[in-house]
Amino acid sequence: MSRIDLADRTAALESAVVAASGRLDRELLDDARAVVTRARERGGLSAEHTVVALAGATGSGKSSVLNAVAGSEIATVGVRRPTTSHAVAAVWGDGAGPLLDWLEVRRRQEMPTPADDDPGDDSGAARPRRGLARLRGRRGPAGISTGLVLLDLPDHDSVVVEHRVRAERLVERADLLVWVVDPQKYADAALHERYLRPLAGRSEVVVVVLNQADRLSDAETDAMLADLRRLVAADGLDGARVLAVSAATGRGIDQLKGLLAEAAAR
Ligand SMILES: Nc1nc2c(ncn2[C@@H]2O[C@H](COP(=O)(O)OP(=O)(O)OP(=O)(O)O)[C@@H](O)[C@H]2O)c(=O)[nH]1
Ligand SMILES: [Mg+2]
Fold first, then answer.
1. What is the residue with the minimal CA distance to atom 32 of ligand 1?
2. Which of 113, 102, 246 is nearest to 175 (CA)?
3. 155 CB within 6 A, ligand 1
4. pLDDT, tens only, 44-87
5. Pairing status of strand 88-92 against strand 107-110
6. Which residue owns the Cα nearest ligand 1 atom 29?
7. 49-265 architecture in CATH?
8. Cα 162 to ligand 2 centroid, rounded to whole Å
9. Is 86 in a helix, a strand, or coil?
10. Please, what are the averages of pLDDT over each run of 10 residues along the chain (266 residues)?
11. Relative to the alpha carbon of 79, which ligand is closest?
12. Is the peptide bond before 82 cis (omega within 30 degrees of 0)?
């Protein structure tokens, strides 16, 4: 993939909006203007951090997946639905404060990085932010120089309107979206029509995670993954990564961590 110059593209989109004013549909132009504004705002904030949002329906296991990736109980997992009313952030690497302010995420948990365990480095040189190295676990080498903000969102399809509004605000602002689905609701029309189809053609910023795989046999998991891949491709997201995990047993969590580390490095 070629490198995208965000500033150039934002300027080009802005010129297009100006040129099209009065000629194209007002709603389309408003959307395009909003993209220009968000891109400029995001461009002025930490490029060191990749914002990854865990999005999905209530009970799919977003909070549980956040905790499994972080390796600690950061988000509240609930039996009563819906549970998460405000987004929660797990943050690897310093300097994400203004970015989190812009995202309007107040609940933040700084994650320890291997550098924190290694006070011996007094060379004065900029210390590599190696939180991601740990996040990457056994999968890759240390020395990743970028950070990660992992967000646990309220449910996007909530019966509580505020949850939906807060979730959508963050879905629009995240750099990478991880849709967490469960074996019951992975084919839900609202998810596919309202959220995945508008992302058509942008498969590199979408990951779909089938959680609760511990409730399925291996054969059932394979069949469901195949079905989910077919649905995601039909949404225009052929090439988006689709994987099975279990927040309960830890299955697939290392693979997910690897994808997050890769996204942050990109
Ligand atoms: N068996 C099994 N249960 C899980 C798994 N992940 C989550 N659960 C259970 O599913 C329920 C919902 O989990 P949460 O993590 O609170 O789900 P959520 O998506 O954050 O829900 P909201 O905050 O309401 O949007 C809880 O009872 C969890 O213990 C899993 O991998 N396997
Ligand atoms: Mg939750």
1. 212
2. 102
3. yes
4. 888 889 999 999 999 999 999 999 999 999 999 987 878 899 99
5. parallel
6. 77
7. 3-Layer(aba) Sandwich (3.40)
8. 14
9. coil
10. 73 95 94 94 88 95 96 88 91 93 95 61 44 45 61 90 92 95 94 94 95 98 98 97 98 94 83
11. 1
12. yes
Query: Would you list the domain boundaries of the chain?
Result: 1-44, 49-265
What six digits make up the tokens of 49? 């951090």
**SS3 labels along 50-78:** EEEEEECCCCCCHHHHHHHHHCCCCCCCC
SS3 assignment, position 215: helix
Query: Residue 181 corresponds to which tokens in the numbers above?
Result: 């689905």
Is the Cβ–Cβ distance between 140 and 210 less than 8 Å? no
pLDDT digits (tens, 9 = 90+) for 128-150: 444 455 554 433 333 334 699 99
Return the structure tokens found at 125. 């040189």
Ligand 1 near 221 CB (within 6 A): no
Instruction: Report CA-CA distances (Å) from 60 to 117, 146, 147, 184, 197.
Output: 34, 29, 26, 9, 20
CA of 25 to the centre of ligand 2 (A): 37
- CA-nearest residue for atom 24, ligand 1, is 82
